[in-house]
Design brief:
alpha+beta
């Protein structure tokens, strides 16, 4: 069976944000059908949509998996639930951990609960900057542009501050 190449966006803005991301990464590393093949540096990022909340720490992961998109989504939701029993209070609200599928091979999928590629990823510096660290040449299968090309279109927006964090733990 072939392994699928998947890019994930991970974020946190409650509690020890870096630790929350590391805990999520470790849970994914320990899954028998997921291989974490790469991780971007961590970034401090300005909240979008609902701005009256603390800044986030965001990163991106490149994983290889045998799971299909629905199975992977179920695993990601289980990790979120494991690390955050209460979940986010509302859409775009504060959260201990958020895991999103950005790309899954070159798949285009739209269901009630899952859109691949992520439907808003090309409008978000906090997704694209970390993705470009580990997969700049990954092609957006709908827009037919590389991730780094999508980022160039956004970088001039001052409302999307993304600040590299120190590399230490």
């Amino acid at each position: 069976m072939d392994r699928h190449i998947v890019y994930l966006s991970i974020g946190s803005n409650i509690g020890n944000k870096k630790k929350n991301l590391k805990n999520a990464i470790n849970l994914l590393r320990n899954h028998d059908k997921i291989d974490v093949a790469g991780a971007s540096p961590f970034y401090k990022t300005q909240p979008q949509n609902y701005t009256d909340q603390d800044w986030f720490v965001n990163a991106a992961l490149k994983i290889k998996t045998l799971l299909d998109p629905q199975e992977l989504l179920a695993v990601l939701k289980a990790v979120e639930k494991d690390l955050d029993k209460d979940g986010k209070p509302f859409r775009f609200g504060p959260r201990i951990i958020d895991l999103d599928i950005i790309y899954y091979d070159d798949l285009i999928l739209k269901t009630e609960h899952l859109g691949i590629p992520h439907p808003r990823m090309h409008k978000r510096c906090f997704v694209l900057i970390p993705i470009c660290d580990i997969g700049a040449h990954t092609i957006h299968p709908v827009l037919n542009l590389r991730s780094d090309e999508l980022l160039k279109k956004l970088e001039k927006q001052e409302t999307q501050k993304v600040i590299p964090m120190d590399k230490e733990a």
